[in-house]
Amino acid sequence: MTLPTDPAQNLAALIRCPSVTPAEGGALSSLEVMLKPLGFAIDRPVFKEDGTPDVENLYARRSGNGPHLMFAGHTDVVPVGDESAWTHPPFSAAIANGEMYGRGAVDMKGGIACFIAALARHIAQKGAPKGSVSLLITGDEEGPSINGTVKLLEWAVAKGETWDASIVGEPTNPDALGDMIKIGRRGSLSGTVTVNGRQGHVAYPHLADNPVRGLMTLTDALLNPVFDKGTKNFQPTNLEVTSIDVGNLATNVIPAKASATFNIRFNDTWDAETVQAEIHNRLDTASGRKKYRKGRKEAIDFELTWKDRPSHVFLTRDDKLIETLSGSVAAITGRKPQLSTSGGTSDARFIKDYCPVVEFGLVGKTMHMVDERVALDDLETLTTIYQRFIEDWFG
Ligand SMILES: [Zn+2]
Fold first, then answer.
1. From ligand 1's centre to the CA of 33, what distance in Å?
2. Ligand 1: centre distance to CA 193 (Å)
3. Which DSSP symbol is given to 236?
């Protein structure tokens, strides 16, 4: 039986499956074909929830005597965008000038392809690793993330699974392989502040109350002063106003309501509760709820609503995991990777509740773009890094 030791071949098979979220597209079946000969037991649970599409996921486990390493990732991909703008069709896995083109090449079918090749090489060259290896692969990372990793983790735990460490194969390197390992992430929260005014004629402002004026005061209070200057492992907390909505088309009408939506990425100075309290406090103070401002008889009448669940800030502190991975990267690339907590959220935010988790994958430059592609050399290098990591971590 041939083992899936060639990352380019593994990746080509995955790219040819059009698995745009929530479609399975053949990608999980393709993984199953690769994993079976490596001795994995495979489950493909489908998760459902009202109002969201059903999503198929995959959990594969190769049992051994020793610690349990989980590799996590997703086979779903974002839409291709303008297909005619692609140099090579997005699901063809065409190779040109040493690069393989295709949606998901770096985010993140490529990472999965490399990990499987690394494990296959390890088994072929040195036999089974001294422990268990599992792959936790979702089809709902780029979508609502409801029927994916969260439920897959709960499902696996209900079956009695526990893990000692996890590596997520998302593209973490900004420019070149070896740039960056992610060891945590800032938290994220979104909210909307709505100011209620009194509608009226612009020529008779004394009869109306313009909510835009109050909203400007409140958004200014959200933005200033800065929340903090950053910490040892984290960038400064940052709030961005992402939308200001009045929806008033008439130039002679003072509107009744105005609202602003914002997102805040916060570091380990805060947690979701303290950052929410800080925002409430800023708005209460600026609105005059606490103390009326000069020249204004009434407090600004506003409501604050929080959107969704917050993502919590986290930092992985597992020396064995971090040092083994960063040592493997250094041994293969000759570069010492930066240990970073930058960037957007990933499924690591869910995994961190079950075991220490780090992220390392390909170079992210072309992810989500037209002409997403990966250098074949990078596939080979990442495979070698993962192989070294598997060897040393179980070692
Ligand atoms: Zn991804």
1. 22
2. 31
3. P
